[in-house]
Amino acid sequence: MTKAVGDLTEAEARAELADLAARIAAANDAYHTRDAPEITDAEYDALKTRNAAIEARFPGLKRVDSPSDQVGGALAEGFGKVTHAVRMLSLENAFEDGDVADFDDRVRRYLNLTGALSYTAEPKIDGLSLSLRYEQGRLVQAATRGDGEVGENVTANALTIKDIPQTLSGAPKILEVRGEVYMSHEDFALLNARQAERGEKPFANPRNAAAGSLRQLDAAITARRPLRFFAYAWGQLSEPLAATQSGALRRLAEMGFQTNPLTVLCDGPAAMLAHYRTIEAQRATLGYDIDGVVYKVDDLALQQRLGFRSSTPRWAIAHKFPAQLAWTRLEAIDIQVGRTGALSPVARLTPVTVGGVVVSNATLHNEDYIAGRSASGEVIRDGKDIRVGDWVQVYRAGDVIPKIADVDLARRPDTARPYIFPQTCPECGSPAHRAEGDAVRRCTGGLICPAQGIERLKHFVSRGAFDIEGLGARQIEMFFNDADLPVRTPADIFTLAARDAANPLRKLKNRDGYGETSAKKLFAAIEARRRIPLDRLIFALGIRHAGEAAAGLLARHYGAWPALEAALTQAAPGNDAWAELTAIDGVGDTLATSLTEAFANKAERAAIDALVAELDVQPVARAATDSPVAGKTLVFTGTLEKMTRAEAKARAEALGAKVAGSVSAKTDLLIAGPGAGSKAKEAARLGIEVIDEDQWLALIGAA
């Protein structure tokens, strides 16, 4: 009979932990390496539970090779967060053949290159991105992509995937391997069959199954899921893998990683498209899901020169496959109200499978799209409108967002009537107006509209914004409608703990879904976000047109909240503050108008001021502080001959300079190439220093 854990001596516990480690390792090898499990899931779980109980009683006896670290136990507190040493970015998409030629043309123009240029082309796996960090040849950490900067620590789960080596030979001292976790069609079918046998809900598609399996809090569940891994990229390196993308992939394969055998080297757009057609023809027979082909500049030195935009590399693009189609019935049209007041129509469909996914909703864009015309009045779908009861053709744009492509008029029921788009907000009853030039109708209720209020708060706590752990969409809805602890504005979030402490009756810890520990954790997570970088605050405000890229531009230009606040308060068309704002490269009249209107609106401004009073807003981190152009405002004009305008701008910003699109009194330096016109004249009028390209290169030490 097995001795109770509470009765074990220290010597007995040490011996049993060694035995458990060996038995669990053998079970893992049988299941993951040889695909021949020797014990049942229940027996496996019992071994893991016993091991965890002994470790809890004798924490000093925990082994270096503890099964708890290798396959994990139930992490009740959730995943830890990992900050990526090198950001994990998404890719720009291409949908047409012409987009591929445009990509090649953009790369060549940026590099000022006319000679040979090679690209790798590989299938785009439809799975979950994962980063694996190896130190001294040993896997020490695995993290999901998350928001690109911070991901979830899933090390214990990754250790259960047989395609992921735990040790490497011949690897750099530090190596971060990036790739995709996926599930084959055969394994997916078997998994869903097991789900059905247990009376559990089947997964919608292999990607969802893979993602859900990798992100289990109990790694033992992940261990029972048939996950696979393709390596295709890398993050931080202590030394280069190779001089080319293709060479680096060969090096990863030599280390033991699975790399996709359909990856080839192409000498230009024609070869890239030819390989795209080859992969597309094989798509249905590959045995795993792909949704396109990824092209990357092969020369890694050129990749480094090309660099990155705010969220995508310039040296790569994903060529997505054409959307897959299906016909189904439109049962209803619902209107959703977004955080900017936009009334967005959503099609409710009889469920239909499109590209392996069951689709029951699709976007209808706006009232013009329903009526059979574009926002500019041009005819679409041969002018056929969309009506409830219609048979509609559904496709998934980029295999992601379901949309309606066509209507079968021959099957339209006699009872179908033209859809009348609402003129009032379905949430608050306020008038819904459509401004001239705007494609959508918007609720005028503002802060009195509950839908806008909730959606703004959801945006405020989203990953790219404040990212408050434990305060997601579901919690926002709960607090928004709470009578005792309401959260109606962002500032309310930061007074939540104080208001809860002052509430003598209904404490948060006593409510459904919360206890003393979870309430304390929420308050601590909120407190941790009082200190926030300027760019994240700007994005979190949810001002129309002010996305993450624009927030970064504004933060880098103004540097700190007081300067930004003063500028947006003072700016009006025609004055100096407006000229400075619109001179920021990437900020035009539309964004400037949206920003200044938000700061001029009394209710909006009161909400912003109340929020900022609760925060410690951190100035933006400068890319460089010791360069000769750090902190200066530069303008480029004319034709540059030794680097492209885009490359010059990127170089200047990396050195801490601000790059503006027009000359003003705030300009410190104008770099003028041949053909400089009005900007050079304006600089001369204002007494601004003007230098040529050679002087610019000498100034930054690149001559």
Q: What features would you describe in this structure?
A:
The chain has a five-stranded mixed beta sheet with strand order 2-11-10-3-9. Strands 14-13-12-15-16 form a five-stranded antiparallel beta sheet. The chain folds into six domains: 5-70, Helix hairpin bin (Helix Hairpins, Orthogonal Bundle), CATH 1.10.287; 93-319, D-amino Acid Aminotransferase, Chain A, domain 1 (2-Layer Sandwich), CATH 3.30.470; 325-415, Nucleic acid-binding proteins (OB fold (Dihydrolipoamide Acetyltransferase, E2P), Beta Barrel); 446-529, DNA polymerase, domain 1 (Orthogonal Bundle); 533-618, 5' to 3' exonuclease, C-terminal subdomain (DNA polymerase, domain 1, Orthogonal Bundle); 633-699, 3-Layer(aba) Sandwich (Rossmann fold), CATH 3.40.50. Residues 31-37 and 70-77 have low confidence and may be disordered. With 703 residues, the chain is α+β, with helices and mostly antiparallel strands. Helix 18 packs across helix 19. A hairpin with an 8-residue loop joins strand 17 and strand 18. The protein starts with 9 loop residues before the first helix and ends with a helix.
Structure summary:
It contains 26 helices and 24 strands. With 703 residues, the chain is of the alpha+beta class.
